[in-house]
Amino acid sequence: MPWKETCAMDQKMELIGDWLRGEYTVTDMSKIYEVSRNTIYKWIARYELKGPEGLEERSRASETHPNATPPQIVEAILTAKTNHKKWGPKKLVQWLRDHYPVEQWPAASTTGEILKREGWVRPRRSRHRTPPYGESFTSWDKPNQVWSADYKGQFRMGDSRVCYPLTISDNCSRYLLACRGLSRPAFDQTRPWFERVFREKGLPEAIRTDNGAPFASVGLGGLSKLSVWFIKLGIKPERIDAGHPEQNGRHERIHRTLKEETASPPRGNLRQQQRAFDAFRYEYNFERPHEALGQKLPASVYQRSGRPYPTKVPKVEYDHGDVTRRVRSNGEIKWKGGFIYVSEALVGEPIALHQSDDHLWEVRFSFHLLGTLNELVGKIQSPTKGQYNSVNHAPGSKC
Q1: Which residue in 313, 264, 292 sits closest to 170, CA to CA?
Q2: What's the fold here for domain 146-301?
Q3: Which of 14, 232, 341, 396 is deepest in the core (most CB within 10 A)?
């Protein structure tokens, strides 16, 4: 793999990752990354001494600078900061100027850099966001075409524990398929209840959720372990836009009614709360007429899906013309002598790559488009809406 200066730091970290995992010898890595063994030993030594910081390119500039802030001024700034920990650079500089007017104090911006360099300023943590969902939503005119699911409106019960109500409903009939109080919205607690509904009611064509866990992640394609499982079952995972709950308005309305009737006030513990949920679900499905259904009962409109839950989750298969790679334990695939990060949610799964241009490859997991591998930058980029419409296949079909 040619060494790219534009992403030298990334490739150094990949090399160090390979060394830490012990999967390759230094000789192997020398061939893969096309650098000398001595250079690899030098980087390993720097990493062991200083961590990732040791891999950064070292400046050839002089270590001293005629315009550098004198040490005694730096010391005075740090002393003032120690005595006024909550003050920012502007207040500190003004205080120093007022109390020591003879000295030449640096600008507030320079003072801020000094404080940052000395560890007094914490850098803001960048917030990773789930990539936007680019496909058109599936429409429905009969049951089981689109289900909605959500964890919303968690609340504290009488025993001070938090209840997270998981709800699953059919968008056409408004039938409430599940209403389960759980202690946390995690994959290991969520999947068994989806599996129970699938066994009882069959599979939908699509499931629409928000962008929170366990339905989505900040990884490639927004995939989580749960949505990967949906895809393997031939279910299309749909995600509403962030900050637009109205895109799942029917399901939002169920939650509002659910909270009013079962959690105001909340029950004493999870067992009592679940009894309230069960009673609500029975009344909602079998006794309460629904205006949007022409005053019919949801249970009278809903019918079981014709797609049964399989006894064994089917394997993902691709056309013979596609290049396939299996995602490794660190979320990467091996590609043309190097490694490309895909997603930890897809560990152990096969993905397909189809060349669309000289250096571009469309990347899919089953029918779900993950993005485009750009060989020039060595990473998979998120897809555009046009790509979604032209590439994705219908759920349940072979790619």
Answers
A1: 292
A2: Nucleotidyltransferase; domain 5 (3.30.420)
A3: 14
- Residues with Cβ within 8 Å of 174's Cβ and at least 6 positions away in sequence, in order, are 250, 254, 290, 292, 293, 298, 301
User: Which tens digits make up the pLDDT trace of 257-305?
Assistant: 888 899 989 999 999 999 999 999 999 999 999 888 899 999 999 999 9
Q: CB of 259 within 8 A of CB of 155?
A: yes
Determine the straight-line distance between the first and last CA of the chain, rounded to whole angstroms. 30
Backbone torsions φ then ψ of 157, nearest 5 degrees: -85, 180
> Are the C-beta atoms of 137 and 208 separated by less than 8 Å?
yes
The torsion angles phi and psi of 294, rounded to 5 degrees, stand at 70, 40
Structure tokens given for 314: 């089917």
Query: Is there a cis peptide before residue 265, judged by omega within 30 degrees of 0?
Result: yes
| Residue pair 350/208 in contact by the 8 Å Cβ criterion | no
Question: What torsion, rounded to 10 degrees, do the Cα atoms 83, 86, 89, 95 define?
Answer: -50
Neighbours of 225 (CB within 10 A): 18
Type of residue at 142: K
Instruction: Assess whether the previous peptide bond of 289 is cis (omega < 30° from 0).
Output: no
Query: Tokens 């250079």 — which residue?
Result: 39
Neighbours of 23 (CB within 10 A): 13
Does the pLDDT of residue 50 top 90, yes or no? no
CA angle 233, 229, 248 (to 5 degrees): 90
Residue 389: how many CA atoms within 13 Å on its side-chain side?
5
H or E element that contains 146? strand 146-151
CA angle 282, 285, 286 (to 5 degrees): 75
Closest CA to 378 of 125, 7, 5: 7
**Structural domain spans, the chain:** 5-55, 71-117, 146-301, 323-391
Q: What is the pLDDT of residues 148-178, one digit of tens each?
A: 999 877 899 999 999 999 999 999 999 999 9
- The vertex-145 CA angle with 141 and 196, nearest 5°, equals 140
Distances (CA, A) of 19 to 32, 44, 47, 103: 12, 8, 11, 52
**How far apart are alpha carbons 111 and 115 in whole angstroms?**
6
Handedness of CA 309, 312, 316, 317 (dihedral sign): negative
